[in-house]
User: What shape does this take?
Amino acid sequence: MKKRSIFSAMAFASVLALSACGGGGGNPLSGGGNTGGSEGSQVIVGSADFTESQLIGSIYSQALQAAGVPTKEQFNIGSREVYIQALKDGSIDLVPEYTGALLSYLDPKSTAATPDAVSSELSTKLPSGISMLTPSPAEDKDVVAVTQATADKYKLKTVSDLKPVAGELVLGGPPEWKTRTQGVAGLRDVYGLNFKDFVSLDAGGTLTMTALTNGQIQAGDLFSTDPGLHSNHLVALEDDKNLFAAENVAPLIKSAKQNDKVKKTLDAVSAKLTTDDLISMNAEAATGTNLADIAKKWLASAGLSSN
Amino acid sequence: MNWISSNLDRIVELTISHTWLTLVPTILGLIVALPLGWWAHRSGRGYAAIVGTAGLLYTIPSLALFILLPAVLGTKILDPINIVVALTLYTVALLVRVIADGLSSVPHDTVAAAEAMGYRGWQRLLLVELPVAVPVIAAGLRVAVVSNVSIVTMAALLGIPQLGSLFTQGFQLRLFAPLVVGVVLCVVLAVVFDGLILWLNKLLTPWRQRTVTS
Amino acid sequence: MNIVGWFTDPANWTGSGGIPAQVGYHLLYCAVALLIALAIAVPLGIVIGYTGRGEALVAGFANALRALPSLGLLVLLFLIISPVAAGKLVYVLPTIIVLVLLAVPPILTGTYAGIQNADPDAVGAARGMGFTKRQILMRVQIPCALPLMVSGVRASTLQIVSTATIAAYLGLQGLGRFIIDGRAQANFAEMAGGAILVAVLAIALEFIFAWLGRIIVSPGLRRAAAKESSPLATTVVEPASP
Assistant: This one.
């Protein structure tokens, strides 16, 4: 799940607390307004508030500009509830998404895991007026990570290897992991892992990373393209039983803005984007390089920067 | 320190944006709260009703308000106006009680003397009661403006550029510099606004005595 | 979204994660933070109010503390403390520090304002009766300051109770657990329930403080306050920070 926003936790709680007082049922953000947003062919590109999302958003924006489509950028939106609403009310027209995370947001009970299963289920669950273009092979999945020291001590390479020692380890991850199949419940049912304790931190964010590297937790939920995996000498255990869902990068776009030119440009970007590209771009961003420049460089190297 | 010097432009921009987002609602809130506070001061039942409603507004966490307001106001979710309206509501909720109590704290002797000198109604309110109530109102205003500085950082949820964006960046890139700069600047802004109101307070109340024993 | 259902489900009232347990944890964090804040703010407030010096400086700084973004500060403190602390302390310490920083300003303001605004007539009378300065402080000024002090502690408690939900961010317990977990699992009833519990707790504490005020504050002061409204709003309630 891509929820690295540190400010979004309380938001939804109280929104619903209030809508509860109003007696309404359901999600108050699901009734989208559909006032017109950008004028004409301009596409407003949004992004979530973590580096990778901004990088991909910047790539989309620059690719569209090169193809002659005017764009405006509205990056760093802090939570999925907010940017999905922004997509519905026309504040933004396009945002980079991750198939698995989006699916579990739209349908928390979904158990689809392979790229095809996730994509096809997603196409039935998208809100009206919003479509998803062709997903990319590039992926940023959840991984269970341990420190090099832990991996050496217990000889860990895959998640299954944790079985005999899980009882001595503390697992850290986002709060939703407590009950989810793609979380503690699944690790227990599919892999037979019973951890000593579970600490709710964040989804592959700073809290989990820091707790893992400082030994407060021994296993943590991180993301596969996180440059910190390499720089902190962590080991991402292989998901040998395929518990975690596919997380292919895909453009989420307002159907009204989807014309042939836009679709062609973004499909070309998606086709060329690979997981290794994400990893190297993230690593470069970690050094402080300007994100738009990194995106520009990638576009040039993929041969997509001018046509 | 390198980071600071290479990002100075952005830091200044964010600080200005933050200042704007804090001050505008505070001033608007004061303007709206004055008549409400006066009304609460005058009418006994009104006091309970108005101050009670104000108290309820406190329990709404700010993020909820930011997200709920678009539905109520009909604005788009990313519009900064949501922040301004939300903060104005909080400021009003805070100041209404302060203004009512401030006006009530004007000694009856002073009011009687003013009336004896010929001040009536509006004149008395504007030229005598309000000025005497200034210290109490100023104290409340200081709290309001400083709390607003903190709440504005929550606008990072909506991607609105302000000092909270430095936090987001610091966490993303796992750098300490933006985090510390963000916190320090929030406190600096608060001290500046606080001092500004204190100074205005001193300016408007040259007769105030400082201590009882000395 | 069946909030009533969530409240009436017996499973939510039992066990280590049930409503009573979480209310208990929540109050525990609040109590610890409040005690520490009292230990810091009351002596400091008395000194400032009595000597009349340092008000602008310390009060300005204390007020600035209200500007601290609680969530941001929480994570920052966690990052700083994590390499050096072990075990649960690394989660507890940042939480308590943030809560104390938010709790100190109202108590500080209430205390020194109370001392400063102690009825001049009472002080004058005491001086006339031959009390020493210290006796005036202990036997007249502090008791006279009690209404404002209680008001300050009240504002501080309210601030702490609503902010203590952030403890759940670092995996601790408390009412924030319902809010964060409920949102994470899209269990909106749980989320709303948690928020409602926080509000109910805040209102309950308001009543307790009203009662406490009646007990602690001397009847003479209460009569005077009832006859002519005193500026009891020098210490003000603040918006709940998320």
